[in-house]
What we know:
The chain has helices at about 5-10, 20-25, 30-35, 45-50, 60-65, 70-95, 115-130, 145-155, 165-185, 210-220, 230-245, 250-255, 280-285, 295-305, 315-330, 335-370; strands at about 10-15, 40, 105, 135-140, 160-165, 200-205, 265-270, 290-295. By secondary structure, the chain is α/β, with parallel strands linked by helices. It has a single domain, classed as Alpha-Beta Barrel (TIM Barrel).
Amino acid sequence: MSKLNELADLGQSIWFDYIQRSLITSGELKDLVDQGLRGVTSNPSIFEKAIAGSPDYDSDLKQLIQSDKSIHQIYESLALADIAMAAEVLKPVYDATQGRDGFVSLEVNPELAHDTQRTIVEAKRLFESLNQPNVMIKVPATPAGLPAISELIAAGVNVNVTLIFALDNYIAVAGAYLDGLEKLAQNGPSVSGGCSLDKVASVASFFVSRVDAAVDKALEKAGNQALQGKIAVANSKIAYDQYRKLFSGPRWESLAARGTRAQRVLWASTSTKNPAYPENLYVDELIGPNTVNTLPPATLKSFMDHGMVSETLTKGVAAARKDVAQLAELGIDLNEITRLLQDEGVAAFANSFGSLMTCITEKREKLLAR
């Protein structure tokens, strides 16, 4: 049995934080699925590297340019094709798990992160365009994103909520999901191909390694080495403990009785940024029931080679709270750090999206010049 299947037995699903045309057409994605991979996530940075950094898309690019498509239409055609093909590969997983896994995620234009209504419109349009039940639309957990999450869930759109760093932000995301479920229960899905109450799915993507990267700098300035490399895992364990509280009690039980799915926590940004830390740190230490971990290629390979399979997420929660509490004693404001990390994440994805648009523009101009 592969390590991915061993994790599935413990209740954790591994998704692949990577997509590229050749990954699908070569059969590599299918091979990974056969080994126990259960989903795929993408983001603007991944698409920038895939489209700008490989020849996989050159033939399609040429045809789209000759069809007089706009730059954004060209990007969207390429991205939607990849997502649709990956969703087909993962559809057997979706069916076998009765809609628990087998999802492929596509992000809304990151330039809309602070615009609620345009995010809602674009997310619905993308979901309807793909018209596959195992597609998730990624929406950032910004102040403008939170009401969009509720409206999209209420419409029957599967949502991957991204760029969560802080506990308070996570609690707000879970609340938005529950609000959306209650609206969906009352009115039913409103988009074409929308999911019913017992089928709609969502994950809350809680970012990990970037927290250590930022907090470690503050700890170094404070002269504290003991907490370095600990806060990201501690922050995640506290969030998971909160998840178990949020998805229990009367409000949740009334929805669960109708077959509703809990919004699983998904660990994102799980490759270690500090080479001094174990390469599987953010996988080995965050294994627990009803969770997802999305791994980039190098981390997936490393974990499959020598990762440790054991439930760790529910252990050491009291120690995690103590570690986080010590930050305040040192004058380190974790809330401010995580707020800045979300702002930086939104900006980074927007920059990647802009770079991708520039790359497509340059290729278009070169072809037209010929």
